[in-house]
Amino acid sequence: MEKRISGYTTLIGLLATPIKHTSSPKMHNEAFQYLGLDYAYLAFEVGNDGLEDAVKGLKAMQARGCNVSMPNKTVIHKYLDKLTPAAELAGAVNTVINDDGVLTGHITDGVGYMTSLKDAGFDIIGKKMTIVGAGGAATAICIQAALDGVSELSIFNQDDEFFARAEETVKKINEKTNCKAKLYRLEDKEALRREIADSVIFTNATGMGMKPYVGQTYIEKDMLRPDLIVSDVVYQPAKTRLLELAEEVGCKTINGLGMMLFQGAEAFKCWTGKEMPIEHMKEFLFGDNK
Q1: Which chain positions lie within coiled-coil regions (predicted)?
Q2: Residue ranges for the binding site?
Q3: In this structure, is residue 5 part of a structural domain?
């Protein structure tokens, strides 16, 4: 029997901008209904300027928590009561859990990304990875990849306000893991070409490829080769320009849908104490190319 929203329904939100493209409400609400859980997941168009008020509102309404996406992942910690060790290490939050008015920030992006690679049959443990990005998701991916056993990480980012953040990430990885991490400016195309040539996987962990950057990529086609795994955290569109170029070259590719599912499953468990029905969700989300 289909569940209906009632006076007992518990709210979970998503705070981000842009927001209209997100598949998270579709995913979580289907999982709630499938398991018979009385929750509702709604997306709210909130950027940095309205974030503090939004967090206060969710707390006042006794929401169970929320997800956080761009541009709020590296800012929301200021309005929370505590962070999990993973979120503290990554310096970013994508999941907030409300336990009787105590707001805890957690990060599930890194685990979600690495699980999606494993689920797709890609093994990068003990190997080299090149990644573009230094925001919340990129940082979480780098930290988790290093903890899981990736041997080398070459991180590229534009020389902007996130570059200093990337320097801190590299320092943490080199001090706290056995992974060897290096940072380069994205403007250095020859370095990018060289590092990709030595890597088994290249990952775009930025918003490049989604609105308003659809059809754009940082990569030139001749930087790619057939035995390279090319990964994009963007899932809307499902096939970015980067992945189109990679397929033309013959690379193995993976988009951000798997990461979206598995990071969502981690958050789902934090809120409900239940395992997300992964196989059902795969069929629901991807079975008919939905």
Answers
A1: none
A2: 22-24, 69, 94, 109, 133-137, 233, 235, 256, 263
A3: no
CA dist list (Å): 120 to 117, 169, 242, 245, 259: 5, 27, 18, 20, 11
Binding site members for NADP(+): 133-137, 233, 256
Nearest residue to 28 via CA among 44, 13, 7:
13
Active site residue 180: no
In a domain, 4, yes or no: no
Instruction: State the total domains in the chain.
Output: 2
Which residue type, as a one-letter code, is found at position 1? M
Catalytic residue of the set 20, 26, 73, 221: 73
Residues 271 and 181 reside in one and the same domain: no
Tell whether 85 and 121 lie within a shared domain.
no
What does each of the 290 residues of the chain score in pLDDT, given as a tens digit?
Answer: 466 899 999 999 999 999 998 999 999 999 999 999 999 999 999 999 999 999 999 999 999 999 999 899 999 999 999 999 889 989 999 999 999 999 999 999 999 999 999 999 999 999 999 999 999 899 999 999 999 999 999 999 999 888 999 999 999 999 999 999 999 999 999 999 999 999 999 999 999 999 999 999 999 999 999 999 999 999 999 999 999 999 999 999 999 999 999 999 999 999 999 999 999 999 999 886 54
| HEC string for 55-108 | HHHHHHCCCCEEEECCCCCCCHHHHCCEECHHHHHHCCCCEEEEECCEEEEECC
Amino acid at position 93, single letter: V
- Predicted model pTM: 0.90
Local structure of residue 171 (DSSP, 8 states): H
